[in-house]
Design brief:
The protein is α+β, with helices and mostly antiparallel strands. The protein has four helices and four strands, in the order H-H-H-H-E-E-E-E. The protein folds into two domains: 92 residues, no CATH class; 40 residues, no CATH class. It is elongated. The termini are far apart. Bound molecules: zinc ion (ZN). The site of zinc ion (ZN) has 8 residues, from loops.
């Protein structure tokens, strides 16, 4: 019996690897990297807990529960990705546009950048509000 055959048999009926596993492993290495400078035992313990949880998930036979965790993680991860993309876009547009929240409906508005005081009209709720662009 070769190694891969035995590994496949061992993993049969177990959850295995998903994106959350990789995220936990990356988190573990980040913590370990930070702790190689700080050398604090709470960080060390958190690192052990993180890698322990990652391994527990890989070997877990409760596939349904692990899938739910994996999906919940991906949902949050996608939210973060969307936010990051938004901030990147805002940063790229910083010279030509300014971004303000509508005080009534809380929509984020992308407005052409002109110095001074203006009145902005929210396209969603038609609320008018003053804005001031300093630079
Ligand atoms: Zn509005």
């Amino acid at each position: 019996m070769n190694f891969w055959y035995r590994l496949t048999r061992f993993m049969y009926g177990r959850y295995g690897v998903d994106k959350l596993f990789y995220a936990l492993v990356v988190l573990y290495f980040i913590l370990t990297g930070i702790n190689s400078f700080l050398r604090l035992w709470p960080i060390y313990l958190v690192g052990l807990a993180v890698i322990g949880f990652a391994l527990f998930r890989v070997l877990s036979r409760n596939i349904y529960k692990r899938q739910r965790e994996g999906q919940a993680f991906e949902k949050q991860w996608n939210k973060i990705k969307t936010k990051c993309r938004l901030y990147k876009k805002r940063f790229e547009d910083r010279k030509t546009h300014c971004f303000r929240k509508c005080p009534r409906c809380k929509a984020m508005l992308r407005l052409p950048k002109r110095k001074g005081r203006h009145t902005a009209v929210c396209p969603r709720c038609r609320h008018e509000f003053p804005i001031r662009v300093l630079f």
